[in-house]
Write a structure and sequence with these properties.
This protein is mainly alpha-helical and 900 residues long. It has 49 helices and eight strands. A five-stranded parallel β-sheet has the order 2-3-4-1-5, with helices on both faces. α7 links the parallel β3 and β4. The longest helix is centred in the middle third of the chain and has 18 residues. It is elongated, with a radius of gyration of 35 Å.
Length: 900
């Protein structure tokens, strides 16, 4: 059993729990009660910071209003820190109803957690205290900065108490100047003689006034020294001598107490403390395995009850940790007395932790034991789940713990490096390590061969997708699906349904960017169904983001709706600023809003997308999801150009070209992106540069519709409208069709300018009218910014046109005014309007009579009246004005925007 005070006084005063150490400190309690919104308790180790706050919380009855967070040793995982903050707040009476749950995700950004937390706590009904203990252990710089953001933005009802051994750069000087900071430092924390007497007597120790004063003087009121002294004094035959010889320096105290306290414990307690000092946390069964004895859980509980620097980590008291200072001392003593036992202890710990489902801790101990094979196997088995569960940073940290060069001799470790390099965008290195792993595949044990093959196919599939190689994706996906369904994979425990969802979604991505939209949508829907059935939200988000891209190509409205749905899923799990699939949804929304001319909103979405897409990247030239990044930078180039930032537009085009160089096949946007770049160069007068680029181009590319538009723009810029018309002719006579209404608008605008230059006003007007007709349903305003044609629009507006409102909106946008917002949540029509009905609808906002509309459309008045009745019926209205308003709500007509 552990040593507890056994004198008569000790038997009277020693309690069965930690409360024996909770000493009232009235002066400090008053400081805490009257303190400002932020209280900093900063002092060296063992100064009593933790016990002060625990005593105060207990004395004030704040147990249900105080959230307690203890920062882990050298905590570098910002995600783990913020999740613990949220969990602790949710455990309070008030926080349980205010603070939303946050789910772990790949590279979860703490800024998201802080922002959500501030939103949740904005309207607290009464004060809540958040105590962050051992804040100095927070090693992640971004997390420290995020704590600063929390301090700056917290509402008055959220009281923050920071316990730390040293001051961190948290912007406390601003709070100090503003009078918003209360500080408690080592001087205030030092125990007085009276407080020291109370502490010792609570542990069953009584000293003479002289001995007590000597002990307090030597420890300078250091709380940890007093507590350690109390443990030894309780069983020392001459407590007065012990107190008189006590050292006041932290290092000297630690060394002295190691001998005087630890050596006075029974052998079984000493053995347990030393042999378990290798652990970050310890349980009774784990300690039993390390000591070879039973009863460890009882000993740990008794040590905690005695205040012997053992702290339980859960309500059931099944897991414990040692006070950090005490753990350091125990580890030092173990290295001093039995260094030869360390590898064996780590090996035992690794085996027990692996057997009981704690792979991360098991890997760390296997590495410490230099059992590299076990460590590699455990990491290989858990890498995919680490990624999908949001612990990629932990996986990469563990991978870095292997000796340099070991991947060259271990197939599974080489494959892990390949997976890691792909995640951070280093595709060439990933492919090299994959090839190395496959060359060494015969060295993989037979019972792990299927698992290894599955991992190889996952890497191949991801690399093929990143390389934009649809054939390779299809082949890898088919092999993976077949292997995942095989009896061998099921027997090996790797035939999980998540593999099918992954294969389907990667296949859909390849099909999407190669223009196979129907196949892509089919596989996305199948992958989404699988992801939802097996309950993997990250795969669900990936499916939803791909679904948004497919929908965006079909219809901006559908793409927007799906992208917003994907973002809602990301927000529900706290992934909106971290998961690359959320970044893909941002790209889709950025594209939709950009084409609608909503430039400020588009820039916001694209900025968020870029942060996510570049979030995992290691070198500056790498990025995750290069196929998605391709669209991001195409959109960025167009946005920068229409905003007048031409140099930034060319930089974005450079990124597009750099990404394309890494593809096995040309991306579906590559030719269009090149045409956009050349068209922009024409606009800024770089005609010679454009001509050289066209001359160097393959004939089949130059003859395509995208480059015909460039050639026409170039010839028109050189005052050659006849040549421009000849370049455009194959587009409009059907020989070189444009299959996208978006890009067709651009060609029609250029045709309108060419016909005007040729003096054919009618042909020019008809081309412009057709461009407006294509733009109207989805509000596609971007082409009119890329190729303004302002004079033609103003002239056309003076005619009796069905698109007066749209022209007004375009001219407003060209003059710098934002477009009128389009409705987002109008109830859709049960029966869509026919093409004929849509043509009539576009005349309704004008002042034309029904007979005049009939003349414009070359149909009878009765036909117009029939169409109008059908339009009213489908829109659910009874008048022309109501029909116009309803059509604008549905996005069938451009919003009314009188020119300013």
């Amino acid at each position: 059993m552990c040593v507890v005070p056994d004198t008569a006084a000790g038997a009277e005063h020693a309690g069965s729990d930690l409360r024996v150490w909770l000493i009232p400190r009235p002066a400090l309690f008053e400081l805490l009660n009257t303190g400002e919104r932020v209280v900093l308790v900063s002092a060296p180790a063992g100064s009593g910071k933790t016990f002060l706050l625990r005593s105060w919380i207990a004395a004030e009855g704040l147990e249900d209003r105080a959230a307690w967070v203890s920062v882990g040793r050298q905590e570098r995982d910002a995600q783990a820190f913020w999740l613990s903050v949220l969990d602790s707040l949710r455990a309070t009476r008030i926080g349980s109803g205010q603070v939303r749950e946050l789910t772990a995700a790949p590279d979860l950004d703490g800024a998201t957690a802080v922002r959500r937390l501030l939103e949740d706590l904005r309207s607290l009904p009464e004060p809540v205290w958040l105590v962050i203990d051992d804040l100095h252990e927070l090693q992640a710089e971004e997390a420290v900065h995020q704590v600063e953001l929390l301090l700056a933005g917290a509402p008055p009802e959220l009281r923050l108490v920071l316990l730390t051994r040293r001051d961190l750069r948290l912007g406390l000087h601003r709070l100090r100047v503003e009078g918003g900071l209360t500080e408690i430092r080592a001087e205030e924390l030092r125990f007085s003689v009276g407080e020291s007497r109370a502490l010792l007597e609570a542990a069953g120790v009584r000293l003479s006034d002289g001995a007590l004063e000597s002990l307090v003087a030597r420890t300078e009121g250091w709380a940890a020294g007093l507590r350690l002294a109390a443990l030894s004094l309780a069983n020392d035959p001459d407590p007065e001598r012990f107190a008189a010889g006590f050292s006041g320096r932290e290092r000297a105290v630690a060394e002295y107490l190691l001998a005087e306290v630890l050596e006075r414990q029974p052998e079984e307690v000493t053995r347990l403390l030393l042999r378990t000092s290798i652990l970050e946390r310890v349980s009774g069964p784990l300690a039993d395995r390390l000591t070879g004895c039973s009863g460890s859980e009882r000993i740990l509980c008794e040590l905690e009850d005695a205040g012997a620097f053992v702290v339980s980590l859960d309500a059931e008291r099944s897991w414990f940790r040692y006070h950090h200072l005490f753990a350091d001392l125990l580890a030092l003593e173990l290295r001093r007395t039995a260094p030869q036992e360390l590898p064996g202890l780590h090996a035992i710990a690794a085996e027990w932790l692996a057997e009981h489902g704690y792979p991360i801790e098991a890997i760390r101990h296997a590495q410490a034991a230099e059992n590299w094979g076990l460590a590699a196997r455990l990491l290989a088995d858990n890498w995919r789940f680490l990624y999908l569960d949001g612990r990629l940073a932990t996986g990469r940290e563990l991978l870095s713990g292997f000796p340099d060069g070991m991947a060259a001799t271990d197939a599974e470790l080489a494959l892990l490096v390949a997976r890691d390099k792909r995640v951070v965008g280093s595709l060439h290195e990933s492919e090299s390590y994959l090839a190395l792993a496959e060359r060494m595949s015969r060295s993989v044990p037979e019972d792990r061969r299927v698992r290894f093959q599955v991992a190889v196919l996952l890497v191949r599939l991801s690399l093929a997708r990143d390389r934009n190689d649809p054939d390779a994706v299809a082949g890898a996906a088919q092999r993976l699906l077949a292997l995942a369904a095989s009896p061998q994979a099921i027997e090996a425990g790797v035939g999980e349904e998540g593999l099918r969802a992954t294969a389907l979604l990667d296949l859909a991505a390849a099909e999407m960017w190669s223009g196979q939209l129907e196949a892509a949508e089919r596989h996305v829907e199948q992958g989404l169904k699988d992801a939802r059935r097996i309950g993997w939200p990250m795969l669900e988000l990936q499916a939803l983001s791909y679904r948004a891209f497919v929908g965006m190509v079909r219809s901006p409205a559908i793409g927007e709706q799906r992208a917003r749905g994907a973002i809602e899923v990301a927000r529900a799990h706290g992934w909106e600023d971290t998961a690359w699939a959320a970044g893909s949804a941002y790209v889709a929304l950025g594209n939709v809003t950009l084409w609608r001319g909503q430039l400020a909103e588009a820039e916001g979405w694209l900025d968020r997308a870029e942060l996510v897409v570049r979030g995992f990247a290691e070198p500056t030239t790498a990025m995750t999801e290069p196929t998605t990044a391709m669209m991001l930078y195409v959109d960025r180039a167009m946005l920068e150009f229409v905003c007048g930032r031409h140099e930034a537009a060319m930089t974005a085009h450079g990124a597009v070209e750099s990404i394309q160089q890494g593809f096995a096949r040309q991306h579906g946007l590559a030719t269009r992106a090149q045409a956009l770049k050349l068209g922009m160069l024409v606009r800024v007068g770089e005609t010679e540069l454009v001509q050289r680029a066209l001359d160097d181009m393959d004939e089949d590319v130059r003859a395509g519709s995208a480059m015909r538009v460039v050639q026409a723009a170039l010839r028109l810029a050189r005052d050659d409208p006849e040549g421009a018309a000849a370049a455009l002719a194959p587009i409009f006579d059907g020989a070189s069709l444009i299959d996208s209404p978006r890009w067709n608008i651009q060609a029609l605008l250029l045709k309108a300018r060419v016909e005007d230059a040729l003096g054919d006003a009618g042909a020019s007007s008809r081309a412009l009218e057709r461009a407006l007709e294509l733009a109207e349903p989805d509000g596609l305003l971007l082409p009119f910014l890329l190729d303004p044609a302002q004079d033609l629009l103003e002239r056309h507006a003076r005619l009796r046109t069905t698109h007066a409102s749209l022209i007004s909106e375009i001219l407003n946008l060209q003059s710098g005014h934002p477009p009128t917002a389009r409705p987002e949540h109008a109830e859709p029509l049960r029966e869509p309007l026919s093409e004929s009905e849509l043509r009539v609808l576009r005349y309704l906002p004008t002042n034309l009579l029904a007979s005049e509309i009939a003349g414009e459309l070359f149909v009878s008045l009765n036909t117009i009246r029939t169409h109008m009745r059908r339009v009213y019926s489908k829109l659910g209205v009874h008048s022309r004005g109501d029909a116009v308003r309803r059509a604008r709500e549905l996005g069938l007509l451009s919003p009314s925007s009188p020119r300013r």
